[in-house]
């Protein structure tokens, strides 16, 4: 693991050096081997040749920017974030704050439409359908990755993780984070404070403005292990703390799919992950 400290004094933009890159066009066994290693050693990797069409990503990005550019009163019609909806500054119930605004929605078309239709303005179907497409692609991608991981771990049912996400009751989420550009140079600010993600797997893509404290080409996705996957693999995969900072003179946008089991799922180590060496 090459993570460096996330203390507030440490404002380096790169928290990881040598973050593994996984190229989905490689042969499956190579992908599986290297992904497993990345999840065990880093809990994070960059994903290229992921198959999510560039047009889909670009269109969601531009519609999302258009959404965040609207007056606050319009955006608030998708909220309040209880916890789903439009929110600003307040990240969670425990008082965490950040220099961002966000839209957090259940990752399925009816739930997206239900919140987005209230915003008004241009045809809400456009934004809603685009977000729906993005969710379909990133959900499929997350499930493929979870299946490759299941295979790599030698699970009897390689779908042990992905079936929790494909379940109709899955609590998967889509989150758009918008970090507005600084009006003046206020130096580095915390956009999204240090945390680990509670879900199974996170698939994040951001525009070309740096901020997540890991560097990557803008066409790549960041994928990270969440707390639930750490628990189900009995600690073999690591869920790593991360944060986003705001330094740029341009707005930053990240678009995230959180692959999540249903709220009824009991999260505990898979029996195959409990061994004499790793009790
Ligand atoms: O917006 C980002 O780059 C990071 C946000 C994040 O870590 C999260 O929403 O869980
Ligand atoms: Fe996160």
From TrEMBL:
Keywords: Iron, Metal-binding, Oxidoreductase. InterPro entries: DIOX_N, IPNS-like_FE2OG_OXY, IPNS-like_sf, Iron_ascorbate_oxido_reductase, Oxoglu/Fe-dep_dioxygenase_dom. The keyword rRNA-binding does not apply. PROSITE patterns: FE2OG_OXY (PS51471). Its cofactor is L-ascorbate. GO terms for molecular function: metal ion binding; oxidoreductase activity. Residues 169-261 form the Fe2OG dioxygenase domain. Belongs to the iron/ascorbate-dependent oxidoreductase family. This is Gibberellin 2-beta-dioxygenase 2. It comes from Platanthera zijinensis. The gene is GA2OX2.
């Amino acid at each position: 693991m090459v993570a460096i400290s996330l203390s507030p004094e440490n404002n380096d933009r790169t928290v990881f050096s040598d973050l593994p890159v996984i190229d989905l066009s490689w042969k499956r066994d190579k992908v599986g081997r290297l992904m497993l290693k990345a999840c065990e050693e880093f809990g994070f990797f960059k994903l290229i040749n992921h198959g999510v069409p560039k047009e889909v990503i670009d269109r969601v990005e531009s519609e999302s920017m258009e959404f965040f550019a609207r007056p606050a009163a319009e955006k608030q019609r998708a909220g309040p974030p209880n916890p789903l909806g439009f929110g600003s500054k307040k990240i969670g119930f425990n008082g965490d704050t950040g220099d961002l605004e966000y839209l957090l929605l259940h990752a399925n078309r009816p739930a997206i439409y239900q919140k987005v239709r209230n915003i008004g303005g241009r045809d809400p179907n456009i934004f809603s359908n685009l977000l729906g497409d993005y969710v379909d692609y990133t959900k499929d991608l997350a499930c493929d990755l979870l299946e490759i991981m299941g295979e790599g771990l030698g699970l009897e049912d390689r779908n042990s993780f992905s079936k929790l996400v494909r379940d109709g009751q899955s609590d998967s989420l889509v989150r758009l984070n918008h970090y507005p550009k600084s009006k003046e140079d206020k130096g580095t600010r915390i956009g999204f404070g240090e945390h680990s993600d509670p879900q199974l797997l996170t698939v994040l893509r951001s525009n070309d403005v740096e901020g997540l404290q890991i560097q990557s080409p803008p066409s790549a996705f960041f994928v990270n292990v969440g707390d639930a996957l750490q628990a189900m693999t009995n600690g073999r995969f690591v869920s790593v703390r991360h944060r986003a900072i705001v330094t740029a003179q341009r707005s930053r946008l990240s678009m995230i799919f959180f692959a999540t089991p249903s709220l009824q799922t009991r999260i505990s180590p898979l029996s195959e992950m409990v061994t004499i060496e790793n009790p």
